[in-house]
From TrEMBL:
InterPro entries: Pra-immunoreactive, RDD, UCP021697. Residues 26-138 form the RDD domain. One of its GO terms (cellular component) is plasma membrane. It comes from the Bacteria. The chain crosses the membrane at residues 32-52, 64-84, 105-125. It is a multi-pass membrane protein. It is found in: Cell membrane. It comes from Microbacterium betulae. Keywords: Cell membrane, Membrane, Transmembrane, Transmembrane helix. This is RDD family protein.
Length: 144
């Protein structure tokens, strides 16, 4: 006997995704872990190349204040179409696909990343656990 929330009500059911295992919608824990890995890597890369002055006021910091965010965006835009996800995605066992399961192409990662760095679209989710940035770009983050 099935419970009131049947198996068809799982995140990704409306997209034809399985409830668990490869191809299922990536859960929040993996998403956050991937994001933290990507932003930590971007911060390390930006600090190595552009420096970091922890005592500088924002007006004095200039480019170095936004360098980690810019490096983060570049990592997303370069790696999503080439390896199927950012380094953080891939390390925690996720990949980014179009909603129909095909390759993301080149413009989707750009749109998705621009919305991701604004933050708000990433924290607004639907029943399929897709952020607004993924809905606009027509992408879905799944377990690899």
């Amino acid at each position: 006997m099935t419970s009131p929330s049947s198996a068809a009500d799982h995140p990704g059911a409306s997209l034809g995704r399985p409830e668990s295992g490869p191809g299922s919608i990536a859960r929040p824990g993996r998403r956050v872990a991937g994001l933290l890995i990507d932003y930590a890597a971007a911060t390390l890369i930006a600090t190595a190349f552009f420096g970091y002055d922890q005592f500088a006021l924002p007006a004095e910091a200039g480019f170095s204040l936004f360098a980690p965010l810019i490096v983060f965006a570049v990592l997303q835009i370069v790696f999503i179409p080439t390896i199927g996800g950012s380094p953080g995605h891939r390390l925690v066992g996720m990949r980014l696909l179009r909603a129909d399961g095909a390759w993301t192409g080149l413009w989707r990662p750009v749109v998705r990343t621009l919305l991701l760095v604004v933050v708000i679209p990433a924290v607004v989710w639907d029943a399929d656990h897709r952020g607004l940035h993924d809905k606009v770009a027509g992408t879905v983050l799944v377990r690899a």
